[in-house]
Every structure is written in structure tokens, then in C-alpha cells.
Design goal:
The chain has 368 residues and is of the alpha/beta class. It folds into 3 domains: 65 residues, Urease, subunit C, domain 1; 227 residues, TIM Barrel (Alpha-Beta Barrel), CATH 3.20.20; 41 residues, no CATH class. The chain is 38% helix and 18% strand. The chain contains 15 helices and 12 strands. It has a 7-stranded parallel beta sheet. The longest helix is centred in the last third of the chain and has 17 residues. It binds zinc ion (ZN). The site of zinc ion (ZN) has 5 residues, from loops.
Length: 368
């Protein structure tokens, strides 16, 4: 599969090259190396204990790791008291648009992240239906970012987005998923609030399959968001069934992360079982009072699924709070269906308002 982006800059080389290190390897020793990093605490990332060592780098490869390298380095970096590790992979990002604003990705590189997985939670900038292209271009023009203005008209699909990234050049490696909400909008229209028909699922599968051929690494869903909330499990199984032949992942912001988390987790596992795809649960959490104490049950559910042959993994925030849109948390899908204008009409209608308020109160009460 295609890996996007060029890793440039000394820090990035430094981290990512360590990913090439194979314990016990023996390379021809040389008198000098272009770069030697001395005295760092090397953690290879394979679970083995770390060790204090010198690391020699030539071109794009690590060529020697030893407690003391006798050769001289054209450049020598002193790393005593610092850790040397392979570049970290940030499994869950929404950098798909932002990467053009800060293409060096300094904020990631400085944390040791050299690979970002983008287009999570079903959201992203492509695919775009031909009828939507102009609207997308207008949004990009408003943003005032030159790269977006130049390229967005061409971001109809994964390939064009990937080409734009490569032309523009970015500081980290990018692993691109196909965002389900955007995929769905491109076939059913942006304001769809119903199940997809068989023909529409087939059309989505075609777009997804093309993206996989063009180097995407999987499909992401955001089933608490519009219009993914309206998708059936069958639709998701159908789409995910494209993935196994590419050994790609189905990464899911599951349908519910509060009262119905366990049900939502069951759905994600069912999608894995039925489609044969690898399932990745995004930002797994036991959110809200009703979930207090549920984390063990969630983890054992996944352990059981693994025993049954479902390939499931998960990532987690490094902080306790979560971040998302207010509407996805305190409004139900039926209240949001059809876009913002329709939602506001419902708020204004006295009869509908009477129905909305107690349900919103109930959702708020579930929160911590
Ligand atoms: Zn999410």
C-alpha cells in the first residue's frame, strides 16, 4: 500500500531510522559515519529492555548499534539522558486538512510522532461527489490557505488527495483511511437521513475499492455523527467486506460511547466477524455514569472476540476528557436529521420542542 509523505529533518530521520534497527544485526564496521548519536537510551520497541548505546546512521539506514562505536561521525549528537526510539504512530488524528496548514507537522515531530493515521471518525475531505466540488472549492478559498485553494478542486477522490499531499510535501508519513461519512454523502447526498439502498451500498463499495487500490489503508466510521448515524449494520458489513483482501482496517468511532457502549461494541465486533476485516475501536472509553466500572467488561469482551478469531484492537486518549461536537452528545440523530436548517426548524416548532427537551435532559444526565 502507498505510504504518503516524506520524512524530512534530522529529528524525523533520527526517530524513523530506529524503526529499521534489527537487534543482533552485524553490519560492516567503518572508520566514519555521516551521523553518530552517542549515549542515548535505546528502546527498540519490540518489548525488549532498553540499553544505553551509540547509534550510527548512514543514508537512510541505521548501520551500527553498540555500547561504544569507535568510528567517528561527521556529525555527532550527544543523547545522554535522552531516549532513542522508533518514530511513534499516532493512530487517531484529524490532520487531513490541517496538514496543509502546517506541513512540517512540528507539533507531532517534536513529540516523536513520525506517522499519522488521518480521516478518523468517518470525517475527512474526500471522496467528494462531482456536484459538491464547487462547494468544496468555495470552502477552501475561504480558508485562505494557498495549498487548499490550489488543490481542493481536485480532491474528488483518495488518489487526488494523496497526489496533492505528495506535491505539497509533508513532514510526517501519512496513513489515509476512507471516511465513511464523506463516502456516504458522496453517494446519498450530504443531508441523507435514511438507510442506503443495495444499489447505493454497491456504489459506495466501488468508490472504497478504488481508494484501496490507490493506497488507502482502510475505512473509518463515525456512527455518532451525521450521516453515519443513519447507516445500517448491513451497510457497514458490506463496505468492510472490501477490506480483508487489502489486509486493511475498519476503524470505528462506535455508534454510542455512553449508555449503549456495549451494544455499539457488539456491533463493531459483528462487523469484523461478518466481513473478516480487522477492527480497530477508536478512542475506546467508558463514558458517563452508566458506564462507571464497565471498562473491565469492555476489555474482556474484546479479549473473547480475539479468542474467536476476530482481529480487534483499540486506541485510547492520553487524557481523561474527550473532545467532540456538542450536538453529537446532547441531540439524538432524529433531531439532527437533514442538516442544520432542518434541526433549527425542529427547535423552533413548539410541539417538536416539547419532545426534544426531555430527551436532551436525559442525555445530559448521563454525563459524568
Ligand atoms: Zn471519534
Amino acid at each position: 500500500m502507498r505510504r504518503l509523505g516524506l520524512c524530512t529533518g534530522i529529528l524525523c530521520v533520527f526517530f524513523s531510522l530506529l524503526g529499521c534497527y534489527v537487534p543482533g544485526f552485524a553490519a560492516a564496521r567503518e572508520q566514519s559515519y555521516p551521523l553518530i548519536i552517542r549515549g542515548g537510551f535505546v528502546i527498540v520497541g519490540d518489548g525488549s529492555k532498553g540499553m544505553k548505546a551509540d547509534v550510527a546512521v548512514k543514508g537512510e539506514r541505521i548501520v551500527e548499534v553498540a555500547s561504544h562505536i569507535k568510528a567517528k561521525g561527521d556529525v555527532e549528537l550527544q543523547a545522554a539522558g535522552l531516549v532513542l526510539a522508533p518514530g511513534f504512530i499516532d493512530m487517531h488524528t484529524h490532520s487531513d486538512g490541517g496538514i496543509f496548514r502546517t506541513p512540517l507537522s512540528d507539533s507531532k515531530i517534536r513529540q516523536g510522532v513520525t506517522t499519522e493515521v488521518i480521516n478518523n471518525c468517518g470525517s475527512g475531505d474526500f471522496p467528494i461527489a462531482p456536484a459538491e466540488k464547487n462547494r468544496q472549492k468555495r470552502q477552501a478559498t475561504k480558508s485562505g490557505v494557498a495549498a487548499l485553494e490550489q488543490n481542493s478542486a481536485g480532491w474528488y477522490n483518495f488518489k487526488e488527495y494523496a497526489d496533492a499531499l505528495e506535491q505539497y510535501g509533508v513532514g510526517v508519513n501519512i496513513v489515509g483511511l476512507v471516511p465513511h461519512n464523506r463516502l456516504r454523502s458522496s453517494v446519498l447526498g450530504p443531508k441523507s437521513s435514511r438507510h442506503a439502498t443495495e444499489a447505493e451500498i454497491a456504489a459506495m463499495k466501488n468508490v472504497l475499492e478504488q481508494a484501496m487500490r490507490d493506497g488507502a489503508w482502510g475505512l473509518s466510521s463515525g456512527l455518532e455523527y451525521m450521516p453515519g448515524s443513519f447507516s445500517s449494520t448491513e451497510e457497514l458489513v458490506g463496505l468492510a467486506s472490501i477490506l480483508p483482501q487489502y489486509d486493511a482496517i475498519y476503524a470505528s468511532h462506535i455508534r454510542n460511547e455512553a449508555k449503549d457502549t456495549m451494544k455499539a461494541l457488539d456491533e463493531a465486533l459483528l462487523i469484523g466477524r461478518e466481513s473478516g476485516a480487522r477492527v480497530h475501536i477508536s478512542h475506546i472509553k467508558a463514558s458517563g455514569r452508566t458506564n462507571w466500572g464497565q471498562s473491565k467488561a469492555m476489555l474482556s469482551k474484546m479479549a473473547k472476540a480475539r479468542e474467536q478469531g476476530i482481529r480487534v484492537s483499540e486506541d485510547q486518549y492520553p487524557y481523561t476528557a474527550s473532545s467532540t461536537s456538542l450536538s453529537s452528545q446532547i441531540l439524538k440523530p432524529w433531531m439532527r436529521a437533514g442538516g442544520v436548517d432542518k434541526m433549527l426548524q425542529r427547535f423552533k416548532d413548539p410541539e417538536t420542542r416539547k419532545k426534544i427537551l426531555p430527551e436532551v435532559a436525559e442525555l445530559i444526565a448521563e454525563k459524568d
